[in-house]
Amino acid sequence: MQFDWSTLGAKPPTALVRARNLSHHALQWVAKAARANLEARPDDAHVSLSWDSGRAAFLSQPLPAGSAEVRVGFSLRRFALVLLRNNRDLDEFELGGRKDASVAVWFDSAMRTLGLKTASEVDQPYSLPSLPVTRGSAYHVSGETDAFGELARWFDMGADLLADIIAANPTAGPVRCGPQRFNMSAVIAVDAGGTEPARSISVGLSPGDEHYAQPYVYVCPAPRLKPADLPLIAAPGQWHLKDFVAAVATGEDILLHPEPAATVAAFVNTAIDIGRERLGNL
User: Fold this and answer.
1) Is the predicted pLDDT of residue 150 greater than 90, yes or no?
2) 220: helix, coil or strand?
3) How many angstroms separate the Cα of 109 from the Cα of each of 90, 102, 118, 119?
């Protein structure tokens, strides 16, 4: 897929906060289904999701439902839970105007019908920011349709960017979408397998969080780089130093450039090179 940058920016990146928070909460239904039905892995990889650009949806890994391949997902564009069997749309449940209690009834019934374990009582090993919907209100999505679509386009862009990064870096792992942070990323291994401590560089897209109230692209080496003497990084990049050390390019800064595709690619590749050089000196 070659992302069409002309489709991005219909809504300002900073106007997506409410849509992002609602989507982040709704996504937890998919993560709960995976947690209930898949064997646990220490790195929580069993609850990682994939991004389906055609459906504008986050999808679970295949769930054990007999001979069929069943996935559950959350469609950003339709703001709905979706069920797939053998990659065909099976059912969906629009969340707008509904409370989580109603969602639980439908979702658990659907899980049982498919021969899967129910998900509504699953506890997540993390907490999310409190929202009215978490306190019993319905999902109020009025006026957010365009924002949901814009968020989906940011994730499309991220998927396209990460596909190029993986193609150019043989030690990069697959794209994983994390329900806790609501981001998509790929990890480039710097050390050979089994080396301790492992060094790596995570490249990803966040739709926004407590640090930036807008989508941003990041390049985050591990172990954490020392903030002192980090080299200057060209616009639209900047160094983020609070809670984590990473090169970051915000949505607003990215869209200021007349050639955003080339600009973002250059930023990411430069930041990866810096990360490799600095990690090599640890």
Assistant:
1) yes
2) strand
3) 14, 11, 8, 10
